[in-house]
Amino acid sequence: MTDASATAARRPGEQVLTTLGLNAPAPDPADTSPHSFPGGGRWRTEIPSCEGPEALAVVLKEASRLDVPIHRISQGSGVWMLTDAEITEMVESTGERDIELCLFTGPRGTWDIGGSTRTDSRGGGLRARGHDAVAGCVEDAVRATELGVKCLLVADEGVLWTLHRARAAGIIPADTTLKVSALIGPVNPAAYAVYERLGADSVNVPSDLTLDHLTEIRRVSGAPMDMYIEAPDDLGGYVRMYEVAELIRRGAPLYLKFGLSKAPGIYPYGHHMRELTLATAKERVRRGRLALDLLARHGADGDMAPLGSRLPGDLQRFEISS
To answer: Is there a contact between 229 and 292 (Cβ–Cβ < 8 Å)?
Structure first.
Protein backbone atom coordinates (compact mmCIF):
# COMPACT_ATOMS: atom_id res chain seq x y z
CA MET A 1 0.00 0.00 0.00
CA THR A 2 1.31 3.45 -0.90
CA ASP A 3 2.22 5.70 2.01
CA ALA A 4 -0.22 8.63 2.08
CA SER A 5 2.66 11.01 2.82
CA ALA A 6 4.16 10.21 -0.58
CA THR A 7 1.03 11.09 -2.55
CA ALA A 8 -0.02 14.18 -0.58
CA ALA A 9 1.19 17.54 -1.84
CA ARG A 10 3.96 19.11 0.20
CA ARG A 11 5.10 22.69 -0.28
CA PRO A 12 7.84 24.43 1.70
CA GLY A 13 6.41 26.81 4.28
CA GLU A 14 2.79 26.08 3.35
CA GLN A 15 1.56 25.96 6.96
CA VAL A 16 3.01 29.40 7.72
CA LEU A 17 1.61 30.89 4.51
CA THR A 18 -1.83 29.43 5.25
CA THR A 19 -1.76 31.09 8.66
CA LEU A 20 -1.00 34.40 6.95
CA GLY A 21 -3.79 33.96 4.42
CA LEU A 22 -1.38 33.31 1.56
CA ASN A 23 -2.14 29.65 1.02
CA ALA A 24 -1.89 28.19 -2.46
CA PRO A 25 -4.84 26.50 -4.22
CA ALA A 26 -5.39 22.91 -3.18
CA PRO A 27 -3.62 20.49 -5.54
CA ASP A 28 -5.67 18.32 -7.84
CA PRO A 29 -5.57 14.68 -6.63
CA ALA A 30 -5.73 13.63 -10.28
CA ASP A 31 -2.19 14.98 -10.71
CA THR A 32 -0.79 12.24 -8.46
CA SER A 33 1.03 9.52 -10.37
CA PRO A 34 -0.74 6.16 -9.98
CA HIS A 35 2.51 4.23 -10.51
CA SER A 36 5.13 2.80 -8.18
CA PHE A 37 8.17 0.52 -8.35
CA PRO A 38 7.64 -3.25 -8.29
CA GLY A 39 8.00 -4.52 -4.76
CA GLY A 40 6.83 -1.22 -3.32
CA GLY A 41 8.02 2.34 -3.07
CA ARG A 42 7.70 5.43 -5.25
CA TRP A 43 11.25 6.77 -5.27
CA ARG A 44 14.81 5.56 -5.43
CA THR A 45 18.11 7.44 -5.28
CA GLU A 46 21.02 7.74 -7.69
CA ILE A 47 24.47 9.27 -7.36
CA PRO A 48 25.69 10.14 -10.90
CA SER A 49 29.13 10.93 -12.35
CA CYS A 50 31.00 8.37 -10.27
CA GLU A 51 33.92 7.95 -12.65
CA GLY A 52 35.95 5.07 -11.23
CA PRO A 53 36.79 2.96 -8.17
CA GLU A 54 38.40 5.83 -6.27
CA ALA A 55 35.39 8.13 -6.73
CA LEU A 56 33.11 5.22 -5.86
CA ALA A 57 34.98 4.68 -2.58
CA VAL A 58 34.51 8.37 -1.73
CA VAL A 59 30.78 8.16 -2.48
CA LEU A 60 30.28 5.02 -0.38
CA LYS A 61 32.23 6.43 2.56
CA GLU A 62 30.35 9.73 2.51
CA ALA A 63 26.99 7.98 2.10
CA SER A 64 27.75 5.92 5.20
CA ARG A 65 28.81 9.00 7.16
CA LEU A 66 25.73 11.03 6.19
CA ASP A 67 23.30 8.07 6.17
CA VAL A 68 22.28 8.59 2.54
CA PRO A 69 20.54 5.51 1.09
CA ILE A 70 21.67 4.67 -2.46
CA HIS A 71 19.87 2.48 -4.97
CA ARG A 72 22.01 3.21 -8.04
CA ILE A 73 25.42 4.66 -8.85
CA SER A 74 26.14 5.75 -12.44
CA GLN A 75 29.19 6.70 -14.45
CA GLY A 76 29.31 9.03 -17.45
CA SER A 77 32.67 8.66 -19.20
CA GLY A 78 31.94 5.21 -20.58
CA VAL A 79 32.87 1.55 -20.25
CA TRP A 80 35.79 2.12 -22.64
CA MET A 81 37.41 4.54 -20.15
CA LEU A 82 37.74 1.82 -17.49
CA THR A 83 40.06 -1.20 -17.32
CA ASP A 84 38.64 -4.65 -16.61
CA ALA A 85 40.17 -4.48 -13.14
CA GLU A 86 38.52 -1.12 -12.44
CA ILE A 87 35.12 -2.36 -13.59
CA THR A 88 35.47 -5.52 -11.50
CA GLU A 89 36.38 -3.48 -8.43
CA MET A 90 33.34 -1.25 -8.91
CA VAL A 91 31.06 -4.27 -9.45
CA GLU A 92 32.33 -5.91 -6.27
CA SER A 93 32.09 -2.75 -4.15
CA THR A 94 28.51 -2.00 -5.23
CA GLY A 95 27.53 -5.67 -5.06
CA GLU A 96 28.60 -5.88 -1.42
CA ARG A 97 26.11 -3.11 -0.65
CA ASP A 98 23.39 -4.29 -3.06
CA ILE A 99 23.64 -1.07 -5.13
CA GLU A 100 23.02 -1.10 -8.87
CA LEU A 101 26.03 0.03 -10.93
CA CYS A 102 25.27 1.72 -14.27
CA LEU A 103 28.02 2.35 -16.86
CA PHE A 104 27.74 4.41 -20.05
CA THR A 105 28.11 2.58 -23.35
CA GLY A 106 30.41 3.39 -26.18
CA PRO A 107 31.27 6.21 -28.56
CA ARG A 108 29.15 9.32 -28.81
CA GLY A 109 28.92 12.01 -31.43
CA THR A 110 30.32 14.87 -29.36
CA TRP A 111 33.67 13.07 -29.02
CA ASP A 112 34.30 11.85 -32.55
CA ILE A 113 35.32 13.72 -35.72
CA GLY A 114 31.82 14.83 -36.73
CA GLY A 115 31.80 18.60 -37.05
CA SER A 116 28.03 19.04 -36.82
CA THR A 117 28.02 18.61 -33.05
CA ARG A 118 30.17 21.75 -32.80
CA THR A 119 27.80 23.92 -34.81
CA ASP A 120 25.18 26.13 -33.21
CA SER A 121 22.51 23.51 -34.01
CA ARG A 122 24.46 20.74 -32.18
CA GLY A 123 23.39 18.41 -34.99
CA GLY A 124 23.78 14.71 -34.21
CA GLY A 125 24.39 15.36 -30.55
CA LEU A 126 25.36 12.44 -28.35
CA ARG A 127 24.10 9.77 -30.71
CA ALA A 128 26.24 6.99 -32.13
CA ARG A 129 27.47 8.10 -35.58
CA GLY A 130 27.57 5.24 -38.07
CA HIS A 131 27.75 1.46 -37.89
CA ASP A 132 31.11 1.38 -36.10
CA ALA A 133 29.87 3.59 -33.26
CA VAL A 134 26.89 1.29 -32.69
CA ALA A 135 29.28 -1.67 -32.75
CA GLY A 136 31.45 0.06 -30.17
CA CYS A 137 28.45 0.50 -27.87
CA VAL A 138 27.54 -3.16 -28.28
CA GLU A 139 31.11 -4.21 -27.54
CA ASP A 140 31.05 -2.11 -24.36
CA ALA A 141 27.74 -3.67 -23.34
CA VAL A 142 28.95 -7.24 -23.81
CA ARG A 143 32.24 -6.54 -22.04
CA ALA A 144 30.59 -4.77 -19.10
CA THR A 145 27.92 -7.42 -18.55
CA GLU A 146 30.49 -10.21 -18.74
CA LEU A 147 32.30 -8.42 -15.89
CA GLY A 148 29.09 -8.31 -13.83
CA VAL A 149 27.61 -4.88 -14.67
CA LYS A 150 23.80 -5.07 -14.63
CA CYS A 151 22.80 -1.60 -15.86
CA LEU A 152 23.84 0.13 -19.09
CA LEU A 153 23.43 3.82 -19.88
CA VAL A 154 22.64 4.70 -23.51
CA ALA A 155 22.36 7.93 -25.50
CA ASP A 156 21.06 6.67 -28.85
CA GLU A 157 17.69 5.19 -29.85
CA GLY A 158 19.29 2.70 -32.23
CA VAL A 159 21.71 1.50 -29.57
CA LEU A 160 18.82 1.16 -27.11
CA TRP A 161 16.78 -1.00 -29.52
CA THR A 162 19.86 -3.06 -30.46
CA LEU A 163 20.72 -3.78 -26.82
CA HIS A 164 17.09 -4.60 -26.04
CA ARG A 165 17.14 -7.14 -28.89
CA ALA A 166 20.48 -8.50 -27.63
CA ARG A 167 18.92 -8.88 -24.18
CA ALA A 168 15.91 -10.73 -25.61
CA ALA A 169 18.25 -13.00 -27.58
CA GLY A 170 20.34 -13.87 -24.52
CA ILE A 171 23.48 -12.13 -25.81
CA ILE A 172 23.50 -10.01 -22.67
CA PRO A 173 21.75 -11.19 -19.46
CA ALA A 174 17.97 -10.96 -19.37
CA ASP A 175 18.04 -8.96 -16.11
CA THR A 176 20.27 -6.22 -17.59
CA THR A 177 18.53 -2.86 -17.27
CA LEU A 178 18.84 -0.14 -19.91
CA LYS A 179 18.81 3.50 -18.86
CA VAL A 180 18.27 6.42 -21.25
CA SER A 181 20.66 9.31 -20.70
CA ALA A 182 19.54 12.84 -19.83
CA LEU A 183 21.56 13.92 -22.85
CA ILE A 184 18.78 12.66 -25.15
CA GLY A 185 15.92 12.72 -22.62
CA PRO A 186 12.38 12.97 -24.04
CA VAL A 187 10.35 16.14 -23.47
CA ASN A 188 6.82 14.92 -24.20
CA PRO A 189 4.68 11.90 -23.31
CA ALA A 190 4.66 10.44 -26.84
CA ALA A 191 8.46 10.37 -26.98
CA TYR A 192 8.68 8.94 -23.46
CA ALA A 193 6.38 6.08 -24.45
CA VAL A 194 8.52 5.37 -27.52
CA TYR A 195 11.67 5.01 -25.38
CA GLU A 196 9.83 2.59 -23.10
CA ARG A 197 8.80 0.49 -26.12
CA LEU A 198 12.35 0.53 -27.52
CA GLY A 199 13.55 -1.22 -24.36
CA ALA A 200 14.24 1.49 -21.77
CA ASP A 201 13.87 0.41 -18.16
CA SER A 202 14.33 3.95 -16.86
CA VAL A 203 14.28 7.23 -18.73
CA ASN A 204 16.15 10.37 -17.68
CA VAL A 205 14.03 13.40 -18.56
CA PRO A 206 15.49 16.92 -18.81
CA SER A 207 15.35 18.74 -15.50
CA ASP A 208 13.51 21.73 -16.92
CA LEU A 209 10.25 19.81 -17.42
CA THR A 210 7.37 21.30 -15.44
CA LEU A 211 5.26 19.43 -12.91
CA ASP A 212 2.44 19.39 -15.45
CA HIS A 213 4.77 17.78 -17.98
CA LEU A 214 5.47 14.96 -15.52
CA THR A 215 1.75 14.41 -15.02
CA GLU A 216 1.27 14.24 -18.79
CA ILE A 217 3.97 11.58 -19.06
CA ARG A 218 2.48 9.54 -16.24
CA ARG A 219 -0.85 9.39 -18.05
CA VAL A 220 0.76 7.30 -20.81
CA SER A 221 3.68 5.44 -19.21
CA GLY A 222 4.63 3.85 -15.91
CA ALA A 223 8.30 3.33 -16.85
CA PRO A 224 10.65 4.54 -14.09
CA MET A 225 11.79 8.12 -14.54
CA ASP A 226 15.20 9.58 -13.65
CA MET A 227 15.51 13.28 -12.88
CA TYR A 228 18.32 15.49 -11.68
CA ILE A 229 17.13 17.22 -8.51
CA GLU A 230 20.18 19.38 -9.09
CA ALA A 231 21.46 19.37 -12.66
CA PRO A 232 25.05 19.89 -13.79
CA ASP A 233 25.70 23.15 -15.62
CA ASP A 234 25.90 21.53 -19.06
CA LEU A 235 22.32 20.31 -18.52
CA GLY A 236 21.06 23.68 -17.30
CA GLY A 237 22.29 23.90 -13.71
CA TYR A 238 18.72 23.72 -12.35
CA VAL A 239 18.31 23.30 -8.59
CA ARG A 240 14.86 21.89 -7.81
CA MET A 241 15.46 20.64 -4.30
CA TYR A 242 12.44 22.45 -2.83
CA GLU A 243 10.19 20.70 -5.35
CA VAL A 244 11.38 17.21 -4.51
CA ALA A 245 8.17 16.09 -2.76
CA GLU A 246 6.00 17.31 -5.63
CA LEU A 247 8.37 15.76 -8.19
CA ILE A 248 7.82 12.41 -6.48
CA ARG A 249 4.06 12.89 -6.23
CA ARG A 250 3.75 13.74 -9.92
CA GLY A 251 6.59 11.63 -11.39
CA ALA A 252 6.68 8.36 -9.42
CA PRO A 253 8.26 5.90 -9.84
CA LEU A 254 11.16 8.33 -9.77
CA TYR A 255 14.93 8.10 -9.33
CA LEU A 256 16.16 11.19 -7.47
CA LYS A 257 19.50 12.07 -9.07
CA PHE A 258 21.80 14.23 -7.01
CA GLY A 259 23.92 16.17 -9.47
CA LEU A 260 25.95 19.29 -8.88
CA SER A 261 25.69 22.74 -10.43
CA LYS A 262 28.58 25.23 -10.61
CA ALA A 263 31.04 22.40 -11.23
CA PRO A 264 33.14 21.85 -14.38
CA GLY A 265 32.39 18.88 -16.64
CA ILE A 266 34.54 15.81 -15.99
CA TYR A 267 33.79 13.57 -19.02
CA PRO A 268 35.83 11.79 -20.23
CA TYR A 269 37.53 11.34 -16.86
CA GLY A 270 41.25 10.83 -16.37
CA HIS A 271 43.63 11.14 -13.43
CA HIS A 272 44.48 14.70 -14.51
CA MET A 273 41.03 15.57 -13.08
CA ARG A 274 41.37 13.47 -9.93
CA GLU A 275 41.01 16.10 -7.20
CA LEU A 276 37.98 17.76 -8.83
CA THR A 277 36.29 14.41 -9.45
CA LEU A 278 36.72 13.20 -5.87
CA ALA A 279 35.60 16.53 -4.39
CA THR A 280 32.48 16.70 -6.53
CA ALA A 281 31.66 13.04 -5.85
CA LYS A 282 31.67 13.77 -2.13
CA GLU A 283 29.53 16.89 -2.54
CA ARG A 284 26.90 15.03 -4.60
CA VAL A 285 26.27 12.77 -1.62
CA ARG A 286 25.91 15.80 0.64
CA ARG A 287 23.38 17.30 -1.78
CA GLY A 288 21.48 14.03 -1.47
CA ARG A 289 21.40 14.39 2.30
CA LEU A 290 20.03 17.93 1.98
CA ALA A 291 17.23 16.75 -0.35
CA LEU A 292 16.32 13.86 1.95
CA ASP A 293 16.25 16.22 4.93
CA LEU A 294 13.83 18.46 3.02
CA LEU A 295 11.58 15.48 2.31
CA ALA A 296 11.56 14.64 6.01
CA ARG A 297 10.73 18.21 7.03
CA HIS A 298 7.84 18.24 4.55
CA GLY A 299 6.49 14.97 5.92
CA ALA A 300 7.00 13.31 2.54
CA ASP A 301 9.95 11.00 3.18
CA GLY A 302 7.87 7.82 3.35
CA ASP A 303 7.47 5.23 0.61
CA MET A 304 11.09 4.96 -0.47
CA ALA A 305 11.63 1.76 -2.45
CA PRO A 306 13.50 -0.95 -0.51
CA LEU A 307 17.28 -0.74 -0.78
CA GLY A 308 18.59 -3.34 -3.20
CA SER A 309 15.55 -3.10 -5.48
CA ARG A 310 16.49 -2.39 -9.09
CA LEU A 311 14.06 -3.97 -11.59
CA PRO A 312 11.47 -1.79 -13.36
CA GLY A 313 8.45 -4.08 -13.43
CA ASP A 314 6.33 -4.97 -16.45
CA LEU A 315 6.76 -2.46 -19.28
CA GLN A 316 5.38 -2.03 -22.79
CA ARG A 317 7.69 -3.06 -25.66
CA PHE A 318 7.63 -3.04 -29.43
CA GLU A 319 7.41 -6.53 -30.88
CA ILE A 320 10.75 -7.99 -31.95
CA SER A 321 10.38 -9.58 -35.35
CA SER A 322 12.39 -12.67 -36.17
So the answer is: no
